Amino acid sequence: MAVMLHESSLAEAADRLWEELPGHRVEILNGSIVVTPPPDGAHQETLTWLVEEFARARARQAGLRYLQGVGLWLPTGPDDYAVPDFSVVDADYKDALVEKNCYAPHVFRLVLEVTSSNWTNDTATKVDVYARANIPAYLIADRRHDEVLLYADPTDGKYPDPGTFKRGQSVPVPEAVGVTLDLSVDTLLDGGG
User: Fold this and answer.
1) Other C-beta atoms within 10 Å of 85: how many?
2) Residue 153: count of CB within 10 angstroms of its CB
3) Confidence class of residue 1 from pLDDT cuts 50, 70 and 90?
4) For the segment 125-141, what is each residue's pLDDT rounded down to a tens digit?
5) Can you tell me the distance from the alpha carbon of 145 to that of 151, in angstroms, rounded to the nearest whole number?
6) What are the strands of the beta sheet with 71-73, ordered from one edge?
7) pTM
8) Which residues lie below 8 Å from residue 98, measured CB to CB, with a gap of 6+?
9) Strand, coil or helix: 189
10) How would you class 187 by CB atoms within 10 Å of its CB: exposed for 0-12, middle for 13-18, buried for 19 or more?
């Protein structure tokens, strides 16, 4: 999509796109605007299932909240922010509001993306920006490659090589997240239907 930008800043251009494209996700990653179309049903079923799983694991009682589509302010550029599909955050995350409904990275314990048409952003760009934001765990349900990747414990702004999980396996949620939970690869990829 070609967009003529007459706004005075990247942030204003992103705001305008957000207003003009309801249902689309607008993010600024490494100084570039990324627009993602609305997700499909299986994508959304996965997110609903995750809410149920984290509720069963008593995440709220462990001092956590689990949210869909909440903004994450990134340290990679002056206006950079992402909107992960699913996040596990500290219960007091609201105290870490930066701006534009985005919260400081230190309150995020886990972010999860379910790939869609923008899979390269999820499997490359976001690996870099989430590591640089020091997010303890980044989980990718990579529907294009039919696998789940788990990046954890970034050091010096980089994640080590990910754990790769195939169908029939479960992904253990890292201890740093704060709950004990194993997630089905099949359900992460196909939805909770």
Assistant:
1) 24
2) 13
3) very low
4) 999 999 999 999 999 99
5) 16
6) 32-36, 25-29, 81-82, 71-73, 102-103, 97-99
7) 0.90
8) 73, 104
9) helix
10) middle
